[in-house]
Amino acid sequence: ILITSTTNAAVDQALAKLSELEDAHSALLAGQIVRVGQTDAETFGASLNEVKKRLNAETAQRLEDLRIYRQRRHNQIKPCDLILEKLKAEAQPQQLDLFGEVKSEAITYRDLISVFPEKYTRYILRLSFEKQRDLVTRRKKQLEKVTELCREKISLLRAELRQQEKVVVQKARV
Hints:
This protein is an all-alpha fold. It has helices at about 10-20, 20-30, 50-55, 55-75, 75-90, 110-115, 120-125, 130-170, and strands at about 95, 100.
């Protein structure tokens, strides 16, 4: 059923009467009644934006969770670079000073905990510099790949949300 009128007020009045019907309440919640167009009147949850938000709440939440996850993984990439710089400096031969070797800066628990889970951090600290470098390099590549995959999934979810406006209008019965 399509209700149209030359005035928005007439459509708003028809929607108000529908909202009073007990049978129409479930149709409103299911997004089967959609108010297309602008109005200042009460829409009873039937405006296109309200229906989209309600029907896509789960997808919108997945999108937000994925954005947060992606940002956390992305924020771990720079610490990987800093750790690799420290390991590179550690691997280079040290110049002797007048009283012996100069101690180079090694990586610390604090460096690693921002990139690895705690149980791996203590293990990694006991490894040779070469193995530490290999693990950090591998972790950085994993983080970059995860970040890219998340970016792609976010794009797909955004496209899905944009498409939902058409779907909502097509599925509407009133």
